[in-house]
Structures are given as C-alpha cells and as structure tokens.
Amino acid sequence: MDGFQLIRFSRIVFTTILMLLLSSYSHSHGGGLSSYGCHTQASNGSYHCHSGNYSGLAFASQEAFLSHVQSQTGVIIAQVKTPLGDFSIELFEKITPVTVSNFLGYVNSGRYGGVLFHRSVDSFVLQGGGYIFNQSGYTLDSVRTDEPIQNEFNVSNTRGTISMAKLGGNPNSATSQWFINLADNSLNLDEQNGGFTVFGKVIGDGMDVVDRIAALQTYTVAGLSDFPLNNYTGGTLVSDNFIEMTITQTDSTSTYSRDDYLPYWMDEDEDCINTRHEALIIESRIPVTMSESGCSVLSGEWLDQATNQIFTEPLDLDIDHTVSLAEAHVSGASHWPIERKKAFANDLLNSEVLKVMDDSSNASKSDKDPSEWLPPNESYHCNYVKNWVEVKTLYGLTFDKDEKNAIEKILNTSVEYGARKGVVGIQASTGKEMARFAMGITEGNNCGYSSAGSLYQNTLIDFSISPDKAHLGQAVDILVVAVLGDDIYSISDTAELVPFTGDASSLMPFIRSTVFRENFTFRLVESVFSEPINVSIYIAYRLDSGDLIYSSAPFVVDIK
Question: Which residue has better confidence, 95 or 254?
Fold first, then answer.
C-alpha cells in the first residue's frame, strides 16, 4: 500500500524545465502577521511564522498550525443545545487563553443558560451571547457582562470559526457576544478593528445545525434587526419562537467504547467483502484466492512492514489501525459523530490508516503510541511514524507531549513535517470540492519532510492523491501542470513542457492510465539541484470523460 510508482527521466531535462518556470513565477503572502508572528501565504494557503515562539515554522494550513498549538494542551469542548439540533465547539484555549476563559466564565456561571441567537445575516454571521427571553415579562433581557477583554486576534475568520463581537473602533471591547462565521470572512473581519478574535470552531457535522438556524426567516425584535425566529406566524412572541441555547463545558476524553468505532468490519460497497478482506486484497503482492462465495480471502502474499516478514495465510494477520481507535478517541475523536468514527475505523481510501500486521505484533502494540511502542523492524520506524502523523493530520487529531517528542526524535524535525502538505481538490465541471492532493519534499537521508529543498543536496519531490471514492477502480491520467503568468504547461511522461491550448484533452499526462485502488503516491523528481528554483505546480487527474479533478491551490517547489 506504500509503494511508489517511480517515474524515471533525465534529471538534467527536468531541472531545465523547472529553471524555465522560475523566471516567470512569483508567489505572494496574504494579510499581516497575527500576534503569533504568523500569516497565510496567498499563493497556496500555507501558514508561515516569522517571529515569536513559532518563528521559522511553516504549516500546510492554518488548521495544521491550530492542531500544533492545541496539541500542547488539553482540548476543551463546549456543547451547544438548540431547538434545531446540537453542535460542539472546540475552544482554542492555548491560542486565545483570555477569550476562552471569558467565554467559559459566562458558561459556568449560568449566564448563557437560555441565551439566544439574536442576529443572522445570510452568508455572513450568526450571532448570539447577548440576550435572554424573559417569558414572564415578554422582554429581552441583556446578559450580565463582565469587564471587556483584551483582543487576541491570531486566527482567520473562516467558515465555521467562532469570534468575539465588539464595538466599532475599539478592539478591546468584547464582553459576552460572539458569532459563528457562515462564510470565509477573513478578507473583511481579519483586517478591521484590530482583527476579530477567533477563539474556537464548530466541529464534526455541527455546521449543518448552524446552517439550519441561519436559514430561518429574520425579523426586527425589540429594535434588533436580523433576528432569527422559528415557526413565527405573527402576533405575540413565545419562547418556542426563539433559538435558545444551553451551553455546557466538557473535555475530549469521554468514555471510549470500541463498538462506537468498530462493532464489526463494514461492507461499504455491499459486495459481501468487508473492510478486513478488502484490505487483504489491496495489500497482497500477488492475486489473492477467494472463497467459493467470493466474500473472503483464503490466501495471498503479504509483507508485514512492521516485522519485515512475508505471510501467505490471512489467519496469521491482523488489520492494524496505525493510530489505534482508543488513541484516536483521546486525541480528539471522542466528539465525532458515530458515523465519522465508523468511517475512520474502516478507511480503505487512505492507505496509511489500515496496515496488515502479524497478530502477535499487533497484540504487543495494542493502543500504544510511538513513545510506548515501535515496530520490531527498525528500518520501518521512519515510515511508521510518518504514517502515524499522516493519519493524525488528515483527521485533525492531536499529539501529547511524550508522543510528539518520540516522533520528532525519529523524524529529526518538527512533527508537522511528518506529513505531506495537502490541499483539497476541485472538480472542473461542477466546482465541487473532492479528493485531496499533497506534496512532500525530502532532503538527503532525512526522515521528515522539509518546507524547501537545499542546493547541492539530493532532493526528492513526491505527491499523494486521495481520489474521490466514486473514482476508485477507474483508469485515470495523472497530470502535472505548471503556470507561468497567463500561460499553462503540462509536463509529459517524457519530460516535455507542453503548452495548454485551452482544451483539457491537450494536457499531456505525467502518468498514463493508472487505476485508483486507494490513495496514490508518485515521485515527481529526485535530483541534486545546483541552481535555486521556485516554481508553482498543480496536480490533477483526468477521468475517461475528460473531466479534471485538480488541486485547489498550487504547490510551491522551492530549492534554495
């Protein structure tokens, strides 16, 4: 499942192509620095830190930065119950400690008991925290507020994040009111009034509930415009017309039950072959022998990378979760909906999640993290911890201190560089988000990835594609596309730089007619560069229909 499709061609030719691209490409940074000394790079959405505690670090995204910071402390969750459904908020205590403390002060004092959503602006914000409906007096009573707090703008106001409301022209005026961003408001709210402090995000499927509330018709109530009301047909308002909230604090360590994740191996495609046997089919190095029913694997050949042993009997093998279910639970999965827990436990798309392992080694590993257990095969330690980081990064799971230190000792770099830097894909015909693309840069004999390559040192540039599930089993062409100003070029499998004519069929494939069985990894180039390079590359795959699924942002190849 880890094998690369190795594409070999002239290092000199490929380096020449990259040098041609260099002269025409430049990338820009977006926005000012947060109080952490970090900002988002406009060209590819990555998050770079130039000063402060995280100086010199670069992250695939702001989300990866948040995971890094949050991993150094416990995760605090606020549960929000409403008449239209419940949702959970992950609070950024490490990033915005004053704001989170302020919010929890209102929660734990009971002042948010029955608090209302009182403002809803389509495709902008859903605001609450300011008023409670007094049913006996039919009045809106203001929440009793504490002293205003210091602004702590660090995180962009993207969809699903939660920010403090404040007075215009006064960055340090926030008290009890807050809002949920219904869209990406970063260009607006990050730049005005000192930046609006994001102190949490809606997690799981919570935005489905938020969107239901935001879709309600709005009215003017007690002089407040854009007030969302439920089932209101006119006349006197009653409690049931308001979206009242009950907010409680919890943590991320609710009781673990394996049955929540894996009561049994699923058969997602209903072909009678469950996840265990699908994994055995995918990982076998030879065609497997199936049972008479066609539902079970009877024999094959499997390399257990953890022990470097070859097995031919399925009964000798377990399907190991690289990150065990219990470990995922205490690392942030506890608040996932049951459906997401089961999807994680049966994830066949992302090859790092499930691995064949001999049953005795799997029993020895149990629920241990890399600070407590590493595979007997020492040569596999690097790939093992990189798989671990890939899984946790993909699913937004956190790292504890001992786990992080053990991983970084093997990576010989920060834990963020244990995973390729990824972006979501876009389907050209519909504009829908689907699939995921990621790039890794590896220098010399280093285990971990790098943000850039170095001159006069062997540099490997590779990519991973996690296709849309609907495209599994289909033959596709893999495309490598470079953009020079207004001109677009594809790099062919013979290292030719082919101009784009405006017809998607003219994009030459870098890899021809490959079939997705799971996520797919390939090497773009491995070379020693003697000249600086900075070039922007898109990755795509083309279906038989001609439709393209492409990376939503370019990957910057930087050799310096």
Answer: 95
